[in-house]
Specification:
148 residues; alpha+beta; Alpha-Beta Plaits
């Protein structure tokens, strides 16, 4: 049986966005459109739970995730394109955050895309999981299912 490759996704919140997105957030005559979004401890927990729910619902395997204050990393096996995985994570996380009542429902949180790539080799998979779990600075909300 041939397994699908693992996918690495990194998606950013408004605080770490591209020049084009920053231009949309620049001060206007009436002030900021929306302030850059940051995930506090409660929001990070919600995002991590939402990613797990998305994987469970879709039959994907989440090997590692690290939810930071302004971006999210994930290593996942899914039989779909990485962009679909990333958009699904954003949707599930946004719904969870909207239901929490922390923010207004029209709050923009995510940049338009992010970084995605396929991992085919075992050593690349191990390196990606290590990077996501151990090389992000002080651990925040981390999931590591690769440990025995």
């Amino acid at each position: 049986m041939k397994l699908d490759p693992l996918i690495v996704c990194t998606t950013f919140l408004g605080a770490a966005c591209s020049r084009r997105m920053k231009a949309e957030l620049l001060p206007r005559k009436r002030g900021w459109i929306q302030a850059p979004y940051q995930l506090d401890v409660h929001r990070r927990e919600l995002v991590l739970q939402a990613m797990g729910e998305a994987c469970s619902h879709r039959g994907w395997m989440l090997f590692a995730a690290h939810v930071r204050t302004n971006h999210v990393h994930a290593v996942v096996r899914a039989g779909v394109r990485p962009e679909i995985v990333m958009n699904c994570f954003k949707s599930y996380a946004s719904r969870a955050l909207n239901r929490s009542g922390f923010d207004p429902p029209n709050r923009k949180r995510w940049t338009r895309h992010g970084s995605t790539r396929y991992l085919w080799k075992e050593e690349d998979i191990s390196a990606a999981i290590s990077y996501v779990v151990h090389e992000q600075g002080e651990p925040m909300h981390v999931l590591d299912t690769s440990a025995p």
